[in-house]
Design a protein that fits this description.
Layout: H1 16-42, E1 49-54, E2 57-62, H2 67-74, E3 94-98, E4 106-109, E5 120-124, H3 126-136
Parallel strand pairs: 1-5
Antiparallel strand pairs: 1-2, 3-4, 3-5
The structure holds FE2/S2 (inorganic) cluster.
FE2/S2 (inorganic) cluster (FES) is lined by residues 68, 84-86, 88-93, 109, 111.
Length: 138
């Protein structure tokens, strides 16, 4: 709700433009706070971001979250619209990944596996390639 008492157009104590600007600023803060609230509902609580590599590109993603959720952190406008079951059935989230202390990459389901610092993801399932295309570049 706009903090300007009553209808700002009828507020005679200040010019209408000042009151309108305050309403717009308040609305912007409200929308931003709600957006932030929605994002915090999606991700498990985290204190810091960890660095991972996806097809040679480096990203910072929230610790204590699944790799698929971290892909959503990287690309919030596309991952939610992918055909992902999020419960280890569809296999559309499969990636090849090498952990910092591993000697070679191995296939994992990104909806099941938790992200870790230094993780190197070298191959993505086609559904992920489509969803992350704009973030990974040509
Ligand atoms: S999202 Fe379906 S198996 Fe991971």
């Amino acid at each position: 709700m706009c903090p300007v008492p009553g209808s700002w157009a009828l507020d005679t104590t200040q010019p209408a433009t000042v009151a309108a600007a305050r309403c717009v600023a308040y609305f912007t803060i409200e929308v931003g706070a709600r957006e932030s609230e929605i994002m915090s509902e999606v991700f498990r609580p985290f204190e810091r971001l960890v660095e991972i590599s996806v097809l040679g590109r480096t990203f910072l993603v929230p610790e204590k979250n699944s790799v698929l959720r971290c892909f959503q952190f990287i690309s919030p406008d596309t991952i939610p619209y992918g055909r992902f079951c999020w419960n280890q059935e569809c296999q559309y989230c499969r990636v090849d990944c090498q952990l910092a202390d591993d000697t070679q990459a191995r296939p994992i389901l990104s909806c099941k596996f938790m992200v870790s610092e230094g993780m190197n993801i070298s191959q993505l399932a086609p559904e992920l390639v489509g969803c992350l295309r704009s973030k990974l570049g040509p």
